[in-house]
Design a protein that fits this description.
2 domains, about 425 residues, 4-stranded antiparallel sheet, single chain, Arc Repressor Mutant, subunit A, binds S-adenosylmethionine, binds iron/sulfur cluster, about 40% helix, 18 strands
Length: about 425
């Protein structure tokens, strides 16, 4: 137990411990496999990455290019569609549990390219594959990039959820970070378009922990949420793992900012457990798209299409080309985005990856841990469970491990107790 306590206290100081795993990709070097990741399972989620943006927000950690030549964009969509067709052709009986289009800013595609992509999704994916019961397709947008015509296409092609990035309403911060700020009037107009065109759920992303972000900023974000009242709100703690900017907030300060947002969202009528990043006005959904829910909580395998997208099967993980900021033209030359950057992982690493992914929702399932390990995880991680329960950092209900309010301040250290190669 002393070892655990020591290891845990050291981990608490490590800023790299959040929900990213592996901590460093070189940790997986020995598991590298020369070939494509195989999927023997039929239950899958799909993700499509559209890497184009109006400008590059300085705080953003995703792979993106400033929108430029429409012809390159067209080539991008053509390759994407080919990759998806090839995958579907070589996999039988796919049952789709989730489908997200993200980015980047998918809505920034030209009308024609956007329509081509969404019509393809509707006719070749949603109409042909088996669709699971709780399936709910979702697409990411910004308030600037969306138009009423595109909302009509979104609805017609089977999407009922749109997730908008707001981040903060501090205009100066946004301008300094190369991002515009939508007016409230614009936001309400977009809401009206959504509601008159069949969009059932609007989610808004807010960020906290941003450099220089004050309590007043957070109050202003909450005031905007109160006015707009989206069905769902997602909170993102600023991550700097792959950014040159360094965050300047302590874990305690981050905790306080989260706590403030949490209390106020609950006051506004949103449901969500302390520690969860997603909130919903409905008691029955977790504020997540079915892609995120099934990928994160239920450990359903996922296949990513497009530059930099990640895939995970029962046996490992792979990354598409483009993760390392390669020029767009270079990525297009290949005529496919699927790569051979594949890692076939032992059960300990697959378990760690699951814990990190599910930890995003502040919880993980003992049943899924048992399945991955092929033995009792309560026994395998006996010391870890004893320590975390004794410290009241976790509680367990119906085989689900929940990170408590007390534990949330050091959630990265909690997750890391389940990572391999630690002499505990
Ligand atoms: C894929 S991004 C794109 C969404 C959309 N393009 C936009 O800008 O609103 C999805 C969300 O990730 C979050 N995000 C971006 N950079 C982040 C970072 N460095 N740390 C944590 N969250 C981040 C933002 O809240 C953003 O809305
Ligand atoms: S936050 Fe959104 S708009 Fe800004 S660079 Fe990232 S993906 Fe693009």
């Amino acid at each position: 137990m002393q070892n655990i306590e020591h290891f845990f206290n050291e981990s608490k100081k490590n800023d790299k411990l959040n929900t990213s795993y592996p901590i460093d990709k070189s940790d997986w070097k020995k598991y590298k496999y020369e070939g494509e990741l195989k999927f023997d399972e039929s239950k899958l989620c799909f993700y499509i990455h559209i890497p184009f943006c109006q400008s590059k927000c300085k705080f953003c950690e995703y792979v993106k290019y400033v929108k430029g030549d429409e012809d390159l964009e067209k080539q991008y969509i053509e390759i994407l569609i080919k990759d998806i067709q090839n995958f579907i052709k070589s996999h039988r009986n796919i049952e789709l549990f989730g489908f997200d289009i993200g980015g980047g800013t998918p809505l920034i595609l030209s009308d024609e390219n956007f329509k081509t992509l969404l019509e393809f999704v509707k006719t070749e994916i949603f109409s042909k594959l088996k669709i699971a019961k709780d399936f709910e397709a979702s697409i990411e947008a910004t308030f600037f990039s969306i138009t009423e015509d595109k909302i009509k296409i979104i609805n017609r092609c089977g999407f009922k959820r749109i997730s908008f990035g707001l981040q903060t309403v501090n205009r100066k911060f946004l301008k300094d970070n190369h991002r515009g700020s939508p007016s409230l009037q614009r936001m309400m107009q977009v809401k009206h378009w959504c509601k008159t065109n069949g969009i059932e759920k609007i989610n808004i992303d807010l960020m906290y922990g941003l450099n220089g972000q004050s309590k007043q900023d957070l109050k202003n974000s909450i005031a905007t949420i109160e006015y707009f009242m989206p069905e769902q709100v997602t909170l993102y703690e600023f991550r700097t793992n792959i950014l040159k900017v360094k965050e300047n907030k302590t874990k305690r300060q981050l905790f306080k900012q989260y706590e403030f947002l949490y209390k106020n969202l609950i006051k506004l009528g949103y449901c969500g457990r302390f520690g969860q990043n997603t909130f919903s006005l409905s008691k029955t959904d977790l504020g997540l798209s079915s892609y995120i829910k099934n990928r994160m909580i239920n450990n359903i395998s996922y296949k990513g299409f497009g530059i930099s997208a990640q895939s995970k099967s029962r046996e490992g993980v792979s990354y598409n080309i483009g993760k390392e900021e390669i020029p767009l033209e270079k990525c297009l030359e290949n005529k496919t985005f699927s790569s051979e950057d594949t890692y076939i992982l032992p059960k300990e690493e697959r378990l760690a990856k699951y814990i990190a992914i599910s930890g995003y929702c502040g919880q993980f399932s003992i049943k899924i841990m048992d399945e991955i390990l092929g033995e009792s995880s309560r026994e395998y991680f006996k010391k870890q469970f004893e320590f975390l329960l004794k410290k009241k950092y976790i509680e367990i209900f119906d085989d689900i491990v929940f990170i408590t309010k007390r534990g949330f301040v050091c959630y990265g250290a909690i997750l890391s107790l389940f990572y391999p190669n630690k002499k505990i």
